[in-house]
Amino acid sequence: MAINDTLIDQGITHQTKTIKLQVGLLHQESITLYIVNSPKYEVILEFPWLSIHDPAISWYRGELTHWSQFCIQNCFPVKPQPCLTTSIESPENQVKITIPTHYHDLSEVFSKTKATQLPPHRPWDCTINLLPNAMPPKSKVCPLSRTEDQAMEEYIKEALDSGFIHPSTSPAAAGFFFVALEQLREATIYTKLDLRSAYNLIRIKEGDEWKTAFLTTRGHYEYQ
């Protein structure tokens, strides 16, 4: 018998009774294990177990992020219960409550609902012109800190849900990274007005979307 190409002298010596195996906070199951003389490995879960439970692992964060449907139905102590949910959206006129009176005629600018919708294509869509025969480079994935990685995950999810971006097959890709601002340098006057999703108020011209592609640890995307 061998483990990781290392021969085990005695092979299987004993078999345990049925015991409870817990992995992480939620996964529990009854299992029988074979005992071998292997001081280097406490437990070895082989390919058949991995193929059934199909755990997804974030090696960057060092944690399990997802289990198979089999696990959700059979290995979690609390089974998910179906429920009926109702989504209630606040009326748009409620936005005016927090907007100064003299800006009420511009209330659409502050609308969170409208900020998560792409405008239609128009003659002034953003055009990205390249030099003749030029091809934008395809960068490698940029390393991010744990905090930046979490912010990236949230941004990608929100942008996908809003339809601002979609998966890309573009031959080009820019690296995704953050640039920290040092309290806006020497600025002393700040505006209290925040234009929601300002970069998405102008669409990318049809046919130029592939030029906006960017690469992350989560995947390859482009703006619309």
From TrEMBL:
This is Reverse transcriptase domain-containing protein. It comes from Cirrhinus mrigala (Mrigala). It comes from the Eukaryota. InterPro entries: DNA/RNA_pol_sf, Rev_trsase/Diguanyl_cyclase, RTL1-rel.
